[in-house]
Amino acid sequence: MVCEEELLIEKVCGLYEQISSLESLKPCKNVDMLFTQLVLTCIPPSPIDVTNLNKNVQEIRSHLIKLCGEAEGHLETHYSTLLASYDNPIENLDIFPYYSNYLKLGLLEFTILTQHCTHVPTKIAFVGSGPLPLTSIVLASNHLPSTTFHNYDMDSLANSNATRLVSSHPDLSNRMLFHTADILDVSNALKEYEVVYLAALVGMDKEGKNRIIDHLAKHMNPGAFLMLRSAHGARAFLYPVVDPCDLRGFEVLSVFHPTDEVINSVVIARKYPLPMHSLDQGLASKILPNKCSEIQPFNPLNHGNIIEELAIEEQLL
């Protein structure tokens, strides 16, 4: 009898073969159908641990994440351009097919942040905002009406698309700023932000993600919060996984794994108030907690449906 995990891998690999043979990943009926099938395959809770997959499937997963990222970029660019043709783009965001997911994710992340941050942040950075910066827009509009959002993206075209969306909005045009830069080239400015968001697809592999995390640990203000998006179970075929053990220089506060259509897990961490050289000398082993287990008593998204919460054993590698 073929086990559930083998069936899942077989289906994901079959979809990968079809997606990787496409001439273009720009939105069209066939592209939309294949990615919808992939998402629906990966959403159900699964005990699969992608780190235990064989080398061939690991390579397929790595390529698939890149394809998902490319397709997501095309999708966001398409809808950003479409929205820019409206007189009031911000009032028509619901034409984006996954807008409701962003509303839920924004509420979830705001709820998590308020459990740890005792005051309303005045400045937030979002790294990897893209042409359709929905997280910043949702947070600025619905949850943090006095906070300024500094959005970073390496792509100047993405930033010009994003700027066009908010330029006609009297409030957001003043509170949403866009910077074209590689975050690895940003240092002093990072000290200004009380919260830094790191988009799921910034750092597409473990090495790239860790290089960015280490850079943030070096330059963020002590005590500032880092919000990261990760993936759990089969959803790790769609997005990179952030291992809490890789958050050197940060205290991991909570890890949340939604079980509904919100795909990304959410990790919140706080930069230690110690200089980085102290951590390098081994003091971190004395101050890092053995466990990260923060109880989330309710799911603000789904009237009581469970958010799976894991106690994370932290180990310094």
TrEMBL record:
InterPro entries cross-referenced by the UniProt entry: Nicotian_synth, SAM-dependent_MTases_sf
Reaction equation(s) it catalyzes: 3 S-adenosyl-L-methionine = nicotianamine + 3 S-methyl-5'-thioadenosine + 3 H(+)
Coiled coil: none
Alphabetic keyword roster: S-adenosyl-L-methionine, Transferase
GO terms assigned for molecular function: nicotianamine synthase activity
Membrane listed as a keyword: no
Pfam family, one: NAS
GO biological-process terms attached to the record: nicotianamine biosynthetic process
EC annotation from Swiss-Prot or TrEMBL: 2.5.1.43
The organism's place on the tree of life at top rank: Eukaryota
Family, similarity comment: Belongs to the nicotianamine synthase (NAS)-like family.
PANTHER family per UniProt: NICOTIANAMINE SYNTHASE 3
Role, per record: Synthesizes nicotianamine, a polyamine which serves as a sensor for the physiological iron status within the plant, and/or might be involved in the transport of iron.
Protein name: Nicotianamine synthase
Source organism of this protein record: Phaseolus vulgaris
